[in-house]
Design brief:
Helix content is 15%, strand content 25%. Helix 2 packs across helix 4. By secondary structure, the chain is an alpha/beta fold. It has an eight-stranded mixed sheet with strand order 2-11-10-13-16-15-1-17, with helices on both faces. It is built from five helices and 17 strands. The longest helix has 18 residues.
Length: 381
């Protein structure tokens, strides 16, 4: 399962919310949209930018599973995407060679290698170490037992400072109007404050849908590494407006899995910066409704939304639970084997990207290296 986050305290109390939510699976039946975020800011073509010589962000469509693509001078990052669509199990990048002859890890980072997935999403560089991006790249991607439907390459030459977020409420019956609901707005204000500390301004639009997939059952029938309900909910994001590809999609559901303690899951590290794939979003549990949460749980909900979106934009956990595996960023603190792997006992326990939440510890800090990765992400404009 990709980048799920757990809660180590209060799971028993939260399970009371989960038990009252019902069960089932299916697709959305009703959709309403509320947009307060402004207009489009991205051109989805390969013709290059207009109105100046400096490239900010652009993209191109790739026609085959192997070949070359050219990235213009001044680019600071490149992001490759291959979408196998529903039912695809293992879309992977089997070879990627940069303009300087460096062979990049096909899995995007050595600490997460070749997990099953329906959509390949690989960003270079994936740390705070600069990479040679401009020039001709050679790539090969493939799909086990399926064919790749779409392929894109994206690039940027300037760090971004704004992020559009589509807040998708799936059968959240306690929220009548997302734009005026005080509980939701307070949680989103805390989310925006965390990203403001990283130099990123967040704006929102809202999508309300009714779906039995608000209870995310722990089934993965296609073996792509995430729950079937996530596949369905993320695949629908392409239909949420003409500029859906400009947004990061935060999907709020009533429960994730059968255990009751999963706070959220990202569709990838990084996730694909395109809408409508089985991995195009982040899923978050409200445990039966945000308005039922305590003030402390609402704080954790905001941190979890920021944490999972951090994964989607390219951040890893500074330390994994084994105390032996660390992210590729040079300035993040590390929790080593032998230390109790909890927020209160690890030097990275207050970091937004720590692997687990709990102990009453506020987790909002980001290092300069982490902020740089976020600002370099394609969805941050």
């Amino acid at each position: 399962m990709l980048s799920s986050r757990l809660l180590i305290t209060a799971v028993t109390a939260l399970a009371l919310f989960v038990a009252s939510c019902g069960s089932g699976s299916g697709s959305s039946t009703t959709t309403s949209s509320f947009d307060s975020s402004g207009g489009n800011s991205r051109a989805m073509d390969s013709a290059g930018p207009t109105g100046g010589s400096a490239i900010y962000m652009d993209s191109a469509t790739l026609s085959s599973d192997s070949g070359t693509f050219d990235i213009p001078s001044g680019a600071i990052m490149v992001h490759l995407v291959g979408n196998g669509g529903p039912g695809a199990r293992m879309v992977e990048l089997t070879a990627l060679t940069g303009p300087d002859g460096v062979n990049w890890p096909a899995s995007n980072a050595t600490i997460f290698s070749n997990e099953p997935r329906s959509t390949l999403s690989s960003a270079i560089p994936y740390s705070d170490t600069p990479a040679t991006v401009a020039g001709t790249w050679n790539y090969t991607m493939g799909c086990s037992g399926c064919s790749i439907q779409n392929r894109w390459v994206f690039w940027k030459s300037t760090p971004g400072s704004t992020l559009k977020v589509n807040v998708i409420l799936v059968s959240q019956t306690d929220i009548a109007d997302p734009q005026t609901d005080a509980t939701l707005q307070n949680m989103l204000a805390n989310f925006a404050r965390i990203y403001a500390n990283a130099g990123i301004t967040v704006s929102y639009k809202y999508t309300v849908i009714d779906s039995a997939d608000t209870i995310v059952a722990d089934t993965d029938s296609d073996g792509n590494g995430q729950y079937d309900a996530m596949d369905r909910l993320f695949a629908q994001t392409g239909g949420y407006g003409p500029n859906a590809e400009d947004y990061a999609h935060l999907v709020f559901v009533n429960a994730i899995g059968s255990g009751g303690g999963t706070l959220g899951i990202s569709g990838g590290i990084p996730g694909p910066p395109v809408a409508g794939t089985p991995h195009s979003g982040v899923i978050l549990s409200t445990f039966g409704g945000l308005t039922k949460m305590s003030a402390d749980m609402l704080r954790i909900a905001a941190e979890t939304a920021a944490h999972e979106l951090g994964h989607f934009l390219g951040l890893f956990h500074p330390s994994e639970s084994d105390g032996k595996t660390y992210d590729p960023i040079s300035d993040t603190p590390e929790c080593h084997a032998g230390e109790k792997p909890s927020p209160a006992n690890c030097p990275d326990g207050t970091n937004l990207m720590f692997w687990i939440s709990g102990d009453g510890v506020t987790q909002e800090t980001l290092t300069a290296g982490q902020k740089g990765v976020l600002q370099r992400a394609i969805l941050v404009r």
